[in-house]
Amino acid sequence: MVTEVGAERDRDHIQSIERGFAVLLAFNADRPNPTLAELAAATSLSRPAVRRILLTLQRLGYVSGGDGRWSLTPRVLSIGQHYTASHSLADTAMPHLLKIVETVHESASLGVLDGAEVVYAARVPVRRIMSINVSVGTRIPAYATSMGRVLLAWAPAGVVRSVIENSDFAHALTPATVTSGEELQRELAKVREQGYALTEQELEVGLISLAAPVRDAGGSVVGALACSTSSARATAESFAADTAGFLVSVAQEFSADLGNGYR
């Protein structure tokens, strides 16, 4: 028998919201890029219901899909336990960013991908090397940055296609900026081969930047550690020779703190 209080609670219960959160929470270290069928099995919901929820969440910017697989976007960091998780990522990053700054004596940052842009999730500045004001929450185009290329190099093909489709290659930020999706794809292949990204004066004249991937327990790239310098203090070649190996090792230590099996 349903009590009056129980009936009132049932009337106030919005099942569609419950199902939406069930789908969001089904993404985890074991299922970082699940298929629709995997999400249906994990939530005990029908495939049509999961499909409608995913399309709604995609329209709202909380998930992205491509090649039959889905992934969370950084926008989920603004809600519930995912917001707490974002603080954990930034907090975990801080000692590693400080280590980079103390060793290299250049600014260090943590970036995450949101749509076609990289969002600064944590940063330890040394000196002002960019004309734009860079702070936590600042957004920069992914295609023209070392952090963006690291995040895209190991991203699903559908994510890369979406970034290419939503990037303005027609208006180069500097004379050195890549000008096509094909050129970007070649750069991403180079990043995968060498294990880090190097950009020289593509976002801003005079700016040289290195980035290395940060992986979670499931091996997915969840962030990019970056270190930047000025062309007045180093060449791209010398900066990479002096710093790339160290930056990759710090990113691996950071990944280990997130449960990845580097150590």
UniProtKB/TrEMBL annotation:
PROSITE patterns: HTH_ICLR, ICLR_ED
Key words, A-Z: DNA-binding, Transcription, Transcription regulation
Pfam family name, one: HTH_IclR
The keyword Transcription belongs to this UniProt entry's keyword annotation: yes
SUPFAM superfamilies: GAF domain-like, Winged helix' DNA-binding domain
Upper classification of the organism: Bacteria, Bacillati, Actinomycetota, Actinomycetes, Mycobacteriales
Domain IclR-ED, residue spans: 75-260
Domain HTH iclR-type span(s) in chain numbering: 14-74
InterPro entries on file: GAF-like_dom_sf (IPR029016), HTH_MetabolicPath_Reg (IPR050707), PcaR_PcaU (IPR012794), Tscrpt_reg_IclR_C (IPR014757), Tscrpt_reg_IclR_N (IPR005471), WH-like_DNA-bd_sf (IPR036388), WH_DNA-bd_sf (IPR036390)
Keyword DNA-binding: yes
Name of this protein: IclR family transcriptional regulator C-terminal domain-containing protein
Domain of life: Bacteria
PANTHER family listed in its UniProt record: HELIX-TURN-HELIX TRANSCRIPTIONAL REGULATOR, ICLR FAMILY, TRANSCRIPTIONAL REGULATOR
